[in-house]
Amino acid sequence: MDKRVGFIGLGIMGIPMVHNLIKAGFEVTVYNRTALKAAQMVAEGATKAISPKELTLENSVIITMVSDTPDVESIILGKNGVLESIKPDSVVIDMSTISPQVTQKIAARLREKKAHMLDAPVSGGEQGAVDGTLSIMVGGDIDILERCRSMLEAMGKNIVHVGSNGMGQTVKLMNQIIAAGNLNATVEALVFAQKHGVDLRKAIEAVQGGAAGSWQLSHLAPCMIRRDFKPGFMVDLMQKDLRLVMEDSESMRVSLPATSLIHQMFHSLQATGEGKSGTQALIKVMERLAGIEVK
Ligand code: NAP
User: Which of 154, 196, 230, 257 lies in disulfide reach of 24, CB 3.0 to 4.6 Å?
Assistant: First the structure.
């Protein structure tokens, strides 16, 4: 396949993903709204474009990795966007987490230009992006996925086709229901153990290899104890994902009582100025309820 790719969105995830594409031998053109971040990638060998439209002129595969649904819409469908210069048979791979319904709408607009779309959101966090071990859940035409597989393999390990356009995003929301539930269980367990005077480092070591082990326990509980709230995944982005889950729960009439409660608990962090903290800051909400601090 074409070894050239255009990459839009150089945030916590985008930068290491571009790094891995370059390492795997791809020629990468980057665009970022805040141009300064693109300069770092140019130093690593990428080329810089001044708009999504210009980036698309030079590339037939375009990856987007930005924050939210309106951001992907404006980059692809908006002024100076991808749609203005896309060529037939090109592929847009959206790796952000956004609305499944809007994904279907964007895919339809691309189809009018005889171009293809894959929704390919990821799981594995910042470390997974750095290590190139992301799980990638892909919606869209399976033949288009096979065409792009080597590119995705530069960024991830577990690449699974889950259905048509929008299904990748739906499976990512399923992933977030599990992640939020595990995170909530982790913070409740830490506060409980702290109250009993347990050595939390030892407790995590003992529990993580058994049936209660989880990514959240192994990766985020140690940060909570160190009081390290630097974002790998920001509270505001988790809330964006849980909002998408809640909207679906409403329209599909699916009861998700625990996820709904966790969404409310995260509001408490946003209300106290912690929206840009990592999701491990959820411990602070539980600490407020319990009247103790974990350490
Ligand atoms: P981030 O660090 O906040 O980066 C967001 C990126 O999107 C930045 O490059 C930002 O540009 C760009 N952007 C936002 N709005 C834009 C707009 N309207 N037009 C153009 N560019 C725009 O976020 P991240 O953690 O990399 O997450 C990116 C996506 O991956 C999100 O959908 C998130 O839910 C998902 N995700 C994240 C993780 C994680 O652990 N971090 C894991 C899985 C999935 P500026 O630099 O100009 O702000």
Answer: 154
